[in-house]
Amino acid sequence: MRVVFLGAPGVGKGTQADRIAVQYQVAKISTGDLLREAVRNQTTLGLEAKSYMDQGKLVPDAVVIGLVREKLAAPSCANGFVLDGFPRTVPQAEELGMVLLSKGVALDRVLNFQVSREDIVRRLSGRRSCPKCQATFHVDFAKPKVDGICDRCEEPLVQRSDDRRDAIEMRLKVYDEQTAPLVRYYEERRLLSTVDASGAVDVVFQHLSKELAPHRVT
Ligand code: AMP
Fold it and tell me: Which residue lies with its CA nearest to atom 6 of ligand 1?
C-alpha cells in the first residue's frame, strides 16, 4: 500500500498515519517528524530547517525531497508507506512521481483530509506535546491525566513553536498557496479521495480504513 495523506496542518494526518502504519504494517514517513528530529539533533539540515519551521514556512523542496528519497529507499518501505505531510508543493509531487517511477511502483491513493478552518485553529492552538517521547495531547480534546504532564514519561508538556497563533496563520496561508494546488493535481491523476476528518479519531480511522481496504496487500 502506497498512500499520501494530504490536508492542511491540524487535520489529524499524523495521528491517523500512525494508526494506519500499524494496521497495514507499512512505514510512516512524516517529513515534519523527520525535520523536528533533525532540529533536536542539531544536524546541519536541522539548523537550516529550524528558522523556516518556527515561522510556519516551508523548508526548501530540495531539503525535504532528499529526506524522503532516503527514507523510500530503506527496507522498512518494502511493504509500502504512508506519507504524512509530503508532498506539500507541486515540485515535490513531481519528484515523488519520478522516484516511484524509477522503482517501478506508483501511488495507490491520495487521501485528502477535510476539517473546517475554525476546528483546525482550535486543534492546533490547543495541541501540546512531550519533548521526550513526542506524544501529543490537547488542552480540551485529549487531556493528559495530570494537567500539563505527559502520561507516558511524566515530562512537562510544551507547545510546538509553530503551534502559536502567528505561525498557525502563516502555515494556513502557505497551505492555501502552495499545498492546496495538489488537490487538483491528484484529482487530475484520478488518485484523490476525500475524507471527512472532522470527527473523533476512531470515527475518522473507520472512514479511512474503508477507503484503504481495496489497497490492502496482505
Ligand atoms: P508538520 O508537522 O507536517 O506540520 O510540519 C511542520 C513543519 O515542517 C512545516 O510547517 C514545515 O516548515 C516543515 N515541513 C514538513 N513537511 C514539509 C514539506 N513536505 N515541505 C516543506 N516543509 C515541510
Answer: 32
Domain ranges of the chain: 2-26+79-115+173-215
DSSP string, 120-157: HHHHHHTEEE-TTT--EEETTTB--SSTTB-TTT-PBP
Q: pTM of the prediction?
A: 0.91
Q: Is the CB of 171 under 6 A from ligand 1?
A: yes
Asked if residue 28 lies in contact with residue 140, where contact means CB atoms within 8 angstroms, the answer is: no
Q: Is the CB of 64 under 6 A from ligand 1?
A: yes
* Rg (alpha carbons) of the chain, rounded to whole number: 17
Q: What is the pLDDT of residues 170-215, one digit of tens each?
A: 999 999 999 999 999 999 999 999 999 998 899 999 999 988 887 6
Distance CA 57, CA 172 (A): 10
- C-alpha neighbours within 13 Å on the C-beta side of residue 31: 29
CATH number of the domain located at residue range(s) 2-26+79-115+173-215 in this protein? 3.40.50.300
Between the two ends of the chain, the Cα-to-Cα distance in Å is 9
pLDDT single digits (tens) 27-80: 999 999 999 999 999 999 999 999 999 999 999 999 999 999 999 999 989 889
